[in-house]
Amino acid sequence: MPRQITSFSNETVKRLRGLRDKKVRKGEGLFLAEGLRILAEARDSGMLPEIIAYSAAAGVHPLAAEIIAAAEARGADVIETTPDILSKMSGKDNPQAILGAYRQPDMALAAIDRAAAPLWIVAQALRDPGNIGTILRTGDATGAGGLILIDDSADPWSVEAVRASMGAIFTQTVASARWEEFIAWLREGPGQLVGTSLNTSHDYLDPDYDQPCFLLIGNESQGLPPSYEAECDLLVKMPMLGRADSLNAAVAAAVMAFHVRASWRNRS
Amino acid sequence: MPRQITSFSNETVKRLRGLRDKKVRKGEGLFLAEGLRILAEARDSGMLPEIIAYSAAAGVHPLAAEIIAAAEARGADVIETTPDILSKMSGKDNPQAILGAYRQPDMALAAIDRAAAPLWIVAQALRDPGNIGTILRTGDATGAGGLILIDDSADPWSVEAVRASMGAIFTQTVASARWEEFIAWLREGPGQLVGTSLNTSHDYLDPDYDQPCFLLIGNESQGLPPSYEAECDLLVKMPMLGRADSLNAAVAAAVMAFHVRASWRNRS
């Protein structure tokens, strides 16, 4: 049975609240996801939270009740609490009525089966967790297998990234690696590494893209290091018709991912 | 000559700081832009700030000195201040060394010359100022003429929107209108209104897009109201290959804008 908790100093409340901090997330190996829609996405992808906090202030949605029951049956810690306390945990003024703490999956490259999808997104040193979440959401929409985070990156398990992913954090494989490690892994099997760059005359609309295609997106302010570009099988440029010389990283990833998918549409 | 200001209670400091508030921005008719890169973009687009604050703590870049001199010559209020005070104004821990307050341009539809560009982006009830800025940046990259904000929208003059636009706030025309007003204006001249929707079987890759094309993007969580979809000349769907049923609004705008441009590439 759920425990009723109305105290901010309760241990489970403090533990959940702590998960907004990267070090605590890393230590616990857990991350927070909020809202029935995302918790249902997780359940449909085979994942249940280890801790759930919810408010019954506006009633409990039948789907929420199902997830709570399923998680309890698997030994989850479940607390019923107040909107105020949920607000403190999520850092939002208008919190969702339910949130869960999930186990972070293994982020080793070895967890990736490159044959499982024709498209993978690789992002280097992303700084903005919202961009990571948005790229995961785009990956889900374009049938990518997942996202490989290269070098030091914002935390994909942060509340902001999970929120922006709209549930795709549960459907996309997420891996993390240093560049050298990634290149060594990539070259062990098939895969075309495609970088987006200003330092090329190849328009992104022209090439035939291979499968699996690994789309490499550079850091928000610096773009890709020259030595990383040199390693790519193909560099392509998205034409910039205005005064700006770059795109938002999540936008660049999406335009490339949708175009590559579209280029395969009439493939036999 | 710039005045040296080191007091948080100085009137110009308070005035600039106040511009982070929407009501104050509206009352003053000004907005804040930060950073030499964006101020240079503004200058190259013919706009100079009415107020400038900068720090000489790390020296003054020659380009900053040029902009400061040009603005002063036009009667701008210029203050030299501390990084701490700049931080208070911008709300950032590591503030840019220069910021300016600019006059908000007229946002009436009448300010738009639809013949000036083949592509315009129209966004309905956007809630996230970051999305507005990102869409402006995409509009610049795809040669759009500007962004028309429909109904109640986040403020394009907010610090977050200006920052995400990376200077495109100065190169794109920004207008604001109620839906009925927009439709009446649109139908007075040429223009194909293209909505993105799940309620159609038309894949976005198939149609011939007319010029000028008005791309209509729906609110982040609700999408377009059915009555707005009914008004579109064309509804198209971006295929969703995963579990998610929607895209980030700025991503949807970018994928459509880049595709429409690409579809025109071989046009005579």
Automatic annotation (TrEMBL), chains A, B:
Superkingdom of source: Bacteria
Gene3D superfamilies referenced in this protein's UniProt entry, alphabetically: 3.30.1330.30, 3.40.1280.10
SUPFAM superfamilies associated with the record: alpha/beta knot (SSF75217), L30e-like (SSF55315)
GO MF, one example: RNA binding
CDD domains: SpoU-like_rRNA-MTase (cd18095)
Domain RNA 2-O ribose methyltransferase substrate binding, chain residue ranges per copy: 32-108
KW Metal-binding (keyword) present: no
GO biological process, one term: methylation
Alphabetically ordered keywords of this record: Methyltransferase, Transferase
InterPro entries in the cross-refs: Alpha/beta_knot_MTases, MRM3-like_sub_bind, Ribosomal_eL30-like_sf, rRNA_Methyltransferase, SpoU_MeTrfase, SpoU_subst-bd, tRNA_m1G_MTases_N
Keyword Transmembrane on entry: no
Any one Gene Ontology cellular component term annotated for this protein: cytoplasm
Signal peptide region: none
Family that this chain belongs to: Belongs to the class IV-like SAM-binding methyltransferase superfamily. RNA methyltransferase TrmH family.
Name recorded for this polypeptide: RNA methyltransferase
Organism: Sphingomonas xanthus
Organism classification: Bacteria, Pseudomonadati, Pseudomonadota, Alphaproteobacteria, Sphingomonadales
